[in-house]
Automatic annotation (TrEMBL):
This is Phosphate-binding protein. Gene3D superfamilies: Periplasmic binding protein-like II (3.40.190.10). Keywords: Phosphate transport, Signal, Transport. It comes from the Bacteria. Residues 60-350 form the PBP domain. Residues 1-32 form the signal peptide. It comes from Streptomyces sirii. Belongs to the PstS family.
Amino acid sequence: MKPLCKGGPRVRVIGALAASGALALTACSANATSSPSAASPGAGSTKASAGAAGIACGGAATLQASGSTAQQYAMKYWIKNYTRACPDTKINYTGNGSGDGQDEFLQGKTAFAGSDSPLSGEQIDQSEKVCPGGHAVHLPMVGGPIAVGYHLPGVDRLILDAPTLAKIFNGQITTWNDPAIAALNKGAKLPSTPIKQFHRSDSSGTTDNFTAYLGAVAPDAWPYEHGKEWKGKGGTGVKGSSDLAAQVRRTAGAIGYFELPYAVARMIRTVSLNTGAPAPVDANVISASQAIAGAQPAGDSDLVLKLDYTTKAPGAYPIDVVTYEIVCSKGNKPSTWPATKAFLTYVASQKGQESLTFQGYATLPAKVVDKVRTEIGGLS
C-alpha cells in the first residue's frame, strides 16, 4: 500500500488529515473564548504551586490511571505537558481498554479511569464503595472519529454505507468485489480478494460506539445490542486499537475500526461513509466535530453525551466516540486528589484542549467543556 504522506510527526498528521478531506487546523478550538485556564483560582488544591506555562500544579503525587485506548495519544500529550510544568507529579496511564479501566477504578486501583462508554446504573451504585459519600461521574474530555481502515492495494478511495459495513463485520459479505460494494464504488477496480475483518477482542468502548452506530443505522444487518464485547460473526479479534491498526496495515484485504490517530500514525487509508448526505463523508476532525456538535446530554445529573448516529447532515461523520474521565463526585483519595484535580483542570482548559486537532481528535462543543470545568471545580 502506498503511503499517504511523508515527513515528521506533525507533517504526517496534517498530511493524513488533508488526504482524508480535512483542513490543517492551527492551535484553536471551539472553546477558545470560554472560561478559565488551568491557572485559574481553585484549579488545584490550596497547596498547589504555579507551574510553568500557566499550569497550576497539585503537588507531589503518583497517579495511576487506565482505560480507553481511544484517548491514548491525547493522554500522552497531556501527561507530557503537565508533568513538564509540574515535575513533582507522576502520571502512569495504561491503555488497556475501557472495560478494564472501569473495573480497575471500581476496585479502587486508580485515581481516574478513561472510558469511551459510560458506566451502567449498576456500576454507578458499585462506585459508592470507592467514593465515600459520593459516586462516579463522567467528564467528557475529548472526541473523535472512529475510522474504518482498510488495506486494499489499487483502491485509493473506498465508499461504504452502514448496511454494507454491518454485513462485512457480521461475515455476510466476504469478498471485496461483492455487488453491494461495487454498487457504491462505480468505476473502481475491486479485486476478488477475500475480506479479512479485524475487531477488538478486549472489552472496548470503541467497539461499543462502533456497534451502536451499526445497530442504529442498519438494524436489519446488525441485529445485536451494542456493547463493549464483540458480538459479530467471523473475523479475527485483536487486543487494543494499536495492535488492531497494525494488523490492518500489514494484511492485504484487511478492514478494521479504530480511532483516527491510529490510522494517521500508520498512514492507513480510511473508508468514506455514505450517510445519505449529498456526498460521502470522510473521517477527519472537522467532520467529527460537526457531528459531535449536535450531541446532547443524556440526562440532567451527569455529563454523558448522546450522539446522533443517524445524522445525514452534509459533512458530518457519524461514527464518533466521546471519551470520559471517570472520577468520584466526593470521596476521591486525599493523597492523590489535589494532583488529580489539577491535572483534570489542565486537561479541560483551553491550553489542554487547543492542540488536540493535530493529534487527530475532534473538538467538543464549548458549552460542554464549560460544564466540565464547572463540574471539576465542585468535586472533592
